[in-house]
Write a structure and sequence with these properties.
Strand order of the largest sheet: 2-1-3-6-7-8
Oligomer: single chain
Number of helices: 18
Shape: globular
Distance between the termini: 17 Å
């Protein structure tokens, strides 16, 4: 009977992909009513209000049975230059009110937390790059030292031993400015990144102290001044009232020192008894393979990571490549730990031939090393005979063989579908294949059968994003405990990633960039400076996405997906229902990313 069921499901999938299958179910309004059993609550303070830190984290959490409690958006929002300010009168989040919000969750009995330290201590990722002082405005008036608030908060959360707390931190990227924030332009970013990328003296283990690390900011391998090494880049920066090298470098050093000291303080507190229920996850923002300004910072923070006692003790805290995927990793690992995950095996295949080098110039490790560290984080061991399949497209070693690499990937995906194997797809090619690979995947594969996909994001977070979603979904499938609500949340995570990569980032965004720059003479990094007709841009977004998403939506609607691979039962599949998109938006009023609502029809068993 099981064999008949499997053969029928496989045949049905082929029929559906051909367009002759079950009738499309009408997408339901979004948001959908809360499930009768809403799941376990996680108090979540996001890094900022971009989609990767908000709705995509919500989808992932709901896909493993959690419900996220989040503060009002105004408390963690980032505003670019010229955009409406937050209630606190600034462009960044409200640290004082966020501190109170977390304590309110604790008083209400919450026992799961995922907290961005960049938001709580600086007002968001962007603000953390330029913050200089240590005083925080309190909601009731007055100020407090950020160090005091940090220790008070951690002490309060440590008092309840049932709490499980994930703290998310970051190593500052090479350039501390953000285009469109506090007057910074692209040329300012490029020059400061060149300064940060200059080689520094490498400190030996015993010399890794705060004092010594700070001194290397101004010292190259042979004692040379890194400012001189970056000076040639200065000609690209126009002289104006805003740009003053001394001001930029002074802020650069001050903000880096503040960031490193706060990270050190977090590790100091965690090293004390009573914080066994805390986990620290540090992400490395865009970096460089060279001995840049981050190298000693990374080594210093790595020394402070906790491991369990005894030889070969298990890692407690982690430092991994990527920042915008930190919440994904924390949600997935929280779920794995709570459900008694004992690890699994995964078969990894690369296509393109360049996995032994960084995926792009912003990575500081070869792709294989980043993969290995993330697999370790999720307790996944590489094995050729594993049930879980991870397929990775890299930049082409031989550009003349791109078609062959693409065909090999397509063939592997088809083999996985035929074998009904859970499959994660990672596009780490950094756009080298253009849209051809997306067109081939849409035409020749069953996209909805993937358990996770990531690509065309900043390369530093592609691996963590795909493996977070994939490991979480794989664990759910293995447990056999998935509910319809969890399946629907998972479907949104997959659809969101595929549609934004294939359609927006691959095509529509490029059209918008050209229109804004050439047609309007505006800045695609900020629609408010100079002011652009945002309704016109939104209309163009909707028109472009309607055209470009049609084939991908049809593929998803004709796909089946794995709903259980529990060893104690037959492999089970369900069929996607209808998929519709609406409420498009530019969360930061810039072209870099978009948000949208995903409506799903009823799944077909």
């Amino acid at each position: 009977m099981k064999r008949v069921k499997r053969l029928f499901a496989a045949a049905l999938a082929l029929v559906l992909l051909a367009g002759c299958g079950a009738q499309r179910t009408e997408p339901l309004p979004y948001p959908e009513p809360a499930a009768s059993e809403p799941g376990k609550t996680v108090a979540y303070v996001p890094l900022d209000d971009r989609p990767d830190n908000v709705e995509r984290v919500v989808y992932l959490a709901e896909s493993v049975g959690y419900a996220l409690a989040m503060p009002d958006r105004d408390l963690y929002r980032t505003a670019l230059d010229g955009q409406p300010l937050n209630e606190n009168g600034t462009q960044h989040g409200d640290m004082g009110r966020l501190y109170n919000w977390v304590l309110e969750q604790e008083e209400a009995g919450c026992d799961r937390y995922i907290l961005s330290l960049d938001q709580l201590l600086s007002g968001g990722l962007v603000a953390s790059r330029s913050a200089s002082g240590y005083d925080v405005e309190l909601s009731g008036g007055g100020t407090a030292q950020v160090y005091s608030l940090l220790e008070e908060l951690m002490t309060a959360l440590s008092a309840d031993k049932n709490n499980r707390v994930w703290l998310l931190d970051s190593v500052m990227r090479l350039a501390n400015v953000t285009v469109g924030y506090e007057g910074a332009r692209l040329e300012h970013y490029n020059w400061l990144r060149a300064f940060g990328a200059q080689p520094r003296e490498t400190l030996a283990e015993e010399h890794l102290t705060i004092k010594n690390v700070l001194e290397t900011y101004w010292r190259g391998p042979n004692g040379e001044d890194p400012y001189d090494g970056a000076a040639r880049q200065m000609d690209a920066v126009s002289a104006d009232d805003y740009y003053q090298p001394s001001r930029f470098i002074g802020q650069f050093i001050e903000s880096r020192e503040r960031k490193l000291r706060l990270s050190d303080e977090v590790q100091r507190i965690l090293a004390q008894p009573g914080y066994e229920n805390f986990r620290l996850l540090i992400g490395i923002d865009d970096s460089s393979l060279e001995d840049c300004i981050q190298k000693n910072e990374i080594a210093f923070l790595r020394r402070g990571l906790r491991t369990e006692e005894g030889e070969g003790g298990k890692q407690i805290d982690w430092l991994l490549s990527g920042v915008d995927d930190l919440a994904f990793k924390a949600v997935a690992r929280l779920y794995l730990d709570e459900t008694g995950w004992t690890g699994g095996r995964a078969c990894v295949q690369y296509f393109g031939g360049t996995e032994d080098r960084p995926a792009c110039e912003y990575d500081f490790q070869p792709l294989t090393e980043i993969m290995a560290e993330h697999l370790d984080f999720f307790d996944l061991r590489e094995s050729d005979g594993a049930d879980l399949q991870i397929l990775v497209l890299t930049q082409p070693q031989d550009p003349g063989q791109m078609d062959a690499y693409r065909k090999q990937l397509i063939g592997a995906l088809r083999d996985c579908r035929k074998a009904r194997r859970p499959t994660i797809l990672i596009d780490a090619s950094n756009g080298a294949f253009g849209t051809a690979v997306y067109e081939a995947l849409t035409k020749e594969t069953e996209l909805g059968y993937l358990i996770a996909y990531s690509g065309m994001l900043d390369m530093a977070i592609v691996t963590g994003t795909a493996l977070s979603h994939g490991a979480a979904r794989y664990a759910v499938l293995r447990s056999g405990d998935s509910t319809d609500a969890m399946d629907r949340a998972w479907a949104r995570t997959l659809a969101d990633s595929i549609l934004k990569d294939f359609c927006y980032k691959g095509v529509v965004r490029n059209d918008l960039l050209a229109y804004i720059r050439n047609g309007l003479g505006g800045d695609p990094n900020n629609f408010w400076s100079p002011a652009l007709d945002r309704e016109d841009l939104l209309a163009r977004l909707e028109e472009g996405m309607k055209k470009e998403t049609a084939k991908v939506l049809r593929n998803l609607e004709q796909s089946s997906f794995l709903s259980s691979t529990s060893p104690d039962a037959a492999i089970e599949e369900r069929h996607w229902g209808g998929v519709a998109l609406e409420n498009y938006r530019f969360p930061w009023d810039r072209a870099f990313e978009i948000g949208m609502d995903i409506r799903l029809g009823a799944f077909i068993d």
